[in-house]
Specification:
alpha/beta
Amino acid sequence: MARRAVVIVASTRAAAGIYEDRSGPIAVEFLRRMGFDTPNALIVPDAEIDEALNTVFAEGPSVILTSGGTGISPDDATVEAVSAHLTKELPGIAHAFYAASASVPTAALSRTVAGVNARTFAMALPGSTGGVKDGCKVLKPLLPHIIDQLEGKHEH
């Protein structure tokens, strides 16, 4: 049975159909290439990110990636919503993400958080396609090891 992953895009304008989300499909394709059973991205207004996370965390997927809502706008609340669900944060992943994004000046305005709750790994990624690509690049070598640890597989 394939492990499940879910991508949630927090974007009021994309949820309203004002523009087509382009970051969610990048994360979905990345997770599918990594072998996860991943439906198309769930797109919700910024104000509904916490409710969407409540629902998805309750389903218990192996991975949840969010995109959007990580900036400093008044309605950007994804980092806080993801943080509220984590029992263990993984700050090293956030540091690796910031290092991977260092060549983009506006990346300094983005916020992220990564961590786990039970057997689910979650990370908040920016809404930009470049930010999602940077996040996927950081996660590619880490996800197999994260999932193994969450499933209780240890080498020592």
